[in-house]
Amino acid sequence: xxxxxxxxxxxxxxxxxxxxxxxxxxxxxxxxxxxxxxxxxxxxxxxxxxxxxxxxxxxxxxxxxxxxxxxxxxxxxxxxxxxxxxxxxxxxxxxxxxxxxxxxxxxxxxxxxxxxxxxxxxxxxxxxxxxxxxxxxxxxxxxxxxxxxxxxxxxxxxxxxxxxxxxxxxxxxxxxxxxxxxxxxxxxxxxxxxxxxxxxxxxxxxxxxxxxxxxxxxxxxxxxxxxxxxxxxxxxxxxxxxxxxxxxxxxxxxxxxxxxxxxxxxxxxxxxxxxxxxxxxxxxxxxxxxxxxxxxxxxxxxxxxxxxxxxxxxxxxxxxxxxxxxxxxxxxxxxxxxxxxxxxxxxxxxxxxxxxxxxxxxxxxxxx
Length: 368
Ligand code: F6P
Prior knowledge:
CATH class of the largest domain: Alpha Beta
Structural class: alpha/beta
Number of strands: 15
Shape: elongated
Helix content: 25-40%
Number of helices: 10
Distance between the termini: 60 Å
Largest sheet: 7 strands, mixed
Strand order of the largest sheet: 3-2-1-6-7-14-15
Number of domains: 2
Bound molecules: 6-O-phosphono-beta-D-fructofuranose
């Protein structure tokens, strides 16, 4: 058993509904069951590098279960192994990991719970190898982390996106338009697939299945020939045409992962207007999918993962990431999420079910 008196907790990367639920679960179990002291690390790795620690009491984590965002703040630009420093008029990247590790030791943090996506957890794995006792908790609305079947935040994002699809039906029907909803997900199509199926999208376009404009237009023509004067397209921000590339909205050079996708829905809308002669409009949901209160399902999952992280610390099981495997809460090596994105498999049962009810993935030769 590890001798633990004081632990630290940090949220890194983009915010995500359920982060506060994890913080609450970790802090409450650590405080009540073990009597450990709990310190929050502010603004992701920025706080570790700058020694910004804040004591968390039971009162601090009370009432935050339902709150979106993170009470600790977060950052996706601060990598201790490639930290951006100003030098004259420019910037340089330097390895300041020794400083970050030193701050954790000086503060007397015996173990850390680091909550984040692939970037944050990759760094966590390196810090674990440098000697810190770490348990990772996977988070992302994209649901694309290797090592876990599900991430908290995903259900909330799907629920927001589904509501948007539901609402856009009104205008699509009234104006006989093509309405395109662009959802997040990076290079994975999980949000588009689930929200597309839940919202009854006629066409779902995901990065894993490159589309052809002809197939998408054929589906719209086919619907019109059946008397359906409108069509709903749910498109993932990372979707791309066959032989083409994803649309990059901008590059953020200070970010650990600089590419920001976005805008493919507008490109598709213009092409479909040209090919079908029907009016098209695109709505990009963006960060709305990450905002607000987590769904009950995300609150439950976040609580389970947070509680499990503390159990692992108490058992001395470090260098692990808590995870959902086969419907159960368990754990995998912290090295797992860095092995690449978890994409939608082409034989996923939801793709099969969607095709069975006539949904197009933009890869057929004719509508149907
Ligand atoms: O990974 C979560 C996510 O919301 C992606 O779906 C999206 O591509 C990206 O983050 C947006 O990042 P940012 O908040 O830096 O714009």
